[in-house]
Design brief:
Elements: E1 2-6, H1 12-21, E2 26-32, E3 35-42, E4 45-51, H2 58-64, H3 70-82, H4 89-95, H5 101-119, E5 125-131, H6 146-166, E6 173-176, H7 180-186, H8 192-201, E7 206-207, H9 208-215, H10 219-231, E8 235-236
Antiparallel strand pairs: 1-5, 2-3, 2-5, 3-4, 6-7, 6-8
Length: 257
């Protein structure tokens, strides 16, 4: 049996409180902003938070945090498919010692916060509770503290609002502003998201909207990476025609007049 309602009538925090206090088992789906966030409860315990947003898939988040490389992720996903999805991705990664349990738990918590942040915003939406629905067996789950997750998600929403005010608009092109020699010197200092952005922008100017599509990074991670790169003058919003930098440090390109 399903229960359907408007988020304008009861907020996400109140919905979670009801599920917890009444020790409900089932799936609570929050539909807002064109996406769906799924919260699975088992006897009132929040066991899993997932999202239809592909940027929040566990494998992508492990790569984003520098905990896993793309080749190993693809190999683990292939192994999972061969097992008929009987094993979770995390279990396979731990078995192969490619990820340690502590990092996996940390990533699952981060994944849950990011997903929940999409549900607690100001946008209108719907909720659907399907009593008795069970979480997918091949997806990582754990004992999540809803109060901690909600507080972190609300802080993330606030941070995102502040970040949007500092970033260039979605459709403004971002240009690479360094040569290959200089980039090679600082490449090790870049975090995985920043390195991903630079890898794309090097090949040609890209707007934030285009980067979101190509990199499938969540808005906050991408925004922070862009802001960091702008502050380091690795990318900028005005066109810079910079070629490779020669060994003596002289730029082969020039800034247009």
């Amino acid at each position: 049996m399903s229960t359907i309602g408007e988020l304008s009538d009861i907020g996400v925090a109140d919905l979670i409180d009801v599920m917890t206090r009444r020790k409900r088992t089932g799936r609570l789906t929050i539909k807002t902003g064109g996406q769906e966030v799924h919260l699975y409860f088992e006897d009132g315990r929040l066991a899993l938070v997932s999202s239809t947003d592909i940027t929040l898939r566990l494998g992508r988040m492990l790569i984003r945090q520098g905990l896993l490389g793309a080749p190993r992720l693809l190999e683990a996903l292939h192994a999972q498919a061969e097992s008929g999805n009987k094993k979770s991705l995390g279990a396979i990664l731990i078995e192969r010692t490619w990820v340690i349990e502590f990092d996996l738990r940390r990533c699952i918590e981060e994944q849950s916060i990011d997903a929940l942040a999409r549900a607690v915003g100001d946008e209108p939406g719907l909720f659907v509770f399907e009593a008795g629905a069970r979480r997918p067996a091949h997806v990582e789950a754990g004992s999540l503290d809803p109060n901690i997750l909600l507080e972190a998600a609300q802080e993330r929403v606030h941070s995102l609002k502040l970040l949007r005010d500092r970033l260039p608009p979605d459709n403004v092109p971002l240009y690479f502003n360094r040569g290959t020699v200089e980039l090679s010197r600082i490449a090790e200092e870049l975090g995985p998201p920043e390195a991903m952005v630079v890898g794309v922008v090097k090949s040609g100017a890209k707007s934030r909207a285009e980067l979101t599509f190509q990199l499938a990074l969540d808005e906050l991670t991408l925004g922070v990476a862009i802001q960091n790169l702008i502050e380091r003058s690795l990318v900028e919003t005005s066109h810079v025609a910079v070629g490779t930098i020669s060994g003596n440090g002289q730029a082969n390109g020039s800034r247009p007049g």
